[in-house]
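WARN retry 2 of 3 for item q-0093 after timeout on previous attempt; input resubmitted unchanged.
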Amino acid sequence: MFVPPAYYLSQAEEKAEYDRHQNRPDDPGYRQFLNRLFLPLQARLAPGSQGLDFGSGPGPTLSVMLAEAGHHVTLYDPFYARQPAVLTRCYDFITATEVVEHLHHPGLELDRLYRLLKPGGLLGIMTKRVIDRVRFAAWHYTNDPTHVCFFSRETFTWLAVRWGAQLEFVAPDIVMFQKPNSGARHPP
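OK item q-0093 returned
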């Protein structure tokens, strides 16, 4: 499900919304929230893995948690860490925590992220999922004006088939894609 582009916020309005976020690495509650992705990802990573925190936001925290666990994490965020060169390297893992619902071109961005994974690499996504149309109509997640696309279990399954990736639904709002070690299809 998508919000029509005519209703997107301007870049300045969108950034103003993100500037209001109070996510900090020293906030135990925020760390607990991120543990839903951090713990299953950490359990699957080799020591010293190289990763990308895509959409790291104004107070990168998941990257700090992963660095504390011995991994090397590069940041990318279109507003706070705009470094296009980092989107030309390949990574052992990529995280997108509460990010994909903000993408104006989700197919293009997700294909790009998948291409940046090394063989065997992991793409961990945290986002609330659409359950059905009836619940969608009253869903609080749609009240955020920066949320412009919404994913369902079927959408993630479709992506996994398209990419030839292994997919795991880790939790109600966590999915993990793993790129095959060889013979991987590449999205167009």
